[in-house]
Amino acid sequence: MNDYSFPPHILFAALDSTPIGATITDPAGRIEWVNPAFLRLTGYRLADLIGQNISVLKSGEHADEEYREIWQTISSGLTWRGTLINKRKDGTLYNESQTITPITGEDGTIQYYVAFKEDISAMIALEKQKKNDLERIQSNSRELHALNKLFQDNLHARSDLHDGVRSTIPTLSGLAAELSQVATSLEATWRRDAAVS
Description:
The chain has helices spanning 8-17, 36-42, 46-49, 64-75, 121-157, 163-166, 168-196; strands spanning 21-25, 31-34, 80-87, 93-104, 110-119. The protein is of the alpha+beta class. It folds into 2 domains: 8-119, Beta-Lactamase (2-Layer Sandwich); 124-196.
């Protein structure tokens, strides 16, 4: 059987070069190592972080219960995956997708936690914008349908209107139908992109 273990300096060199933030903490959550991508992500210097608890990134946007659930998961030997809102050194908030995995020793006790962290703020902002655009188009479509119905009701009530006014009905109806189709198409695209993400 092939031995796929690597010397620690090779593993650390690989982690140093990855564009995704990486941290190693002790079982109490004290930071022992971070890679350059994590420093760029958070704005901290290495000297600011070593020995600090990972909670230095807490934004105050999450209830304590959420953090307890994370610790219960990883302290039981399981990997936790999820998204948190964290805070950079300058105080700005960002959405972080992360995976935290416990590393155990030969006796089975947890020695370290390794975490990989990625800023997904831009992706979330894009999804929010797409959702807002979809809702705006759907709202406009509903309003246009209501206007079209009101227009037709008035025309039926006033049979003496000029034929030229009547001729606007098919155009208005067609525009409403086109907007409805666009809204449906955008909704399908948004849901597909959300599923892929």
